[in-house]
Model the fold of this input.
Amino acid sequence: HFLKQSMYIQVFHKNLVFHFLQEYLINKTTMNERNYSIDILKFSCAVLVIFLHTNSNFQEITLPFTRCAVPCFFIISGYLLFGKNNISQDRLNRNLKHVAKISLWSTLFFIVWTEFKNIVEFGTIFIPSYIDIVEWIVFNDNPFAFHLWYLFAYMYVLLIISLVNKYDKWKLLYWFTPVLLFGDLVLGKYSLLIWGYEPNFLLARNFLFVGLPYFTLGTIIKRFVDQDFVFKKRYLLLVGIILFTVTTYGEKFFLTSVNMFATRDHYLSTTFLALCIFLLSLSFKTGHKSTISILGEKYSLYIYIFHPIFILCCNIIFKLIGLHNMYLYISPIVVLIATIIFTFCLFKIKIIK
Done:
């Protein structure tokens, strides 16, 4: 009886050790599933957006390159949401609710901010016109905060992707993506060269010609591109980034020289530049957290949402203290630091999570 009990105890201990070892390996594998290099890219894109929007002495120099930030954000979203062959409908619904919630409170926040500014500057409140509301609904152009178009475009993209996923029309979407990217060019940066006039930029900067095609590119990468292959082509991707950066500035020089430079965002090279940047980031797969990856994971969206406030506030403060000329050399960095500190405080007092 004693020997039998001892055998039971040994078997129990072996099973218990095996169970804990299995749990450890599962947890370790789960932790390592997250590619923190993508979080680093998210933070880098948030920084590029600040450089894009902040007035500085070198803004015009950096402008063509920083245009790739928003396309990269959409590519990241498509890549992260897509599974092996499609996207879980539950996951789509959760993300849609999440983005809708953020879009709602951020819009309410900027309504208060916009009305406060208008009362201080003009002594009156801002009332959106009928055209403003239509442009908001159709083209995602939020009348209270120009940069929030991204959130509403993303919501529309998720709604379209839900239908594509439900009826399994991915191949149709893949074939249609180059058409949408071409539409962005002919209605935007190359409109003057092709049509002789520049349409309203809202026709191109919306869910259809920016959000949907770049999101789809992210799903294509997830579905068809092997990460080991990307790793082997790392140096080729680095060459691609350099090449398409040069061609981006070449496009700007050409359009300016023929007096056909439209104000719309994206160049032909912007798409290839964004793809090379994303794929290069993907090749540096890392399962280890860092300060920058934490900033990308937790802060990048809020940096995007709140940075216009600090663009205005920092500009006013440095004018008041007489250091505005010096400030213009470091303005994007100051805005970035101020936005990070503000976001950190909101996390600490649990206003956002």
Summary: The two ends are 57 Å apart (CA to CA). The mean pLDDT is 91. The chain is about 80% helix and 0% strand. The CA atoms of residues 108 and 310 lie 18 Å apart.
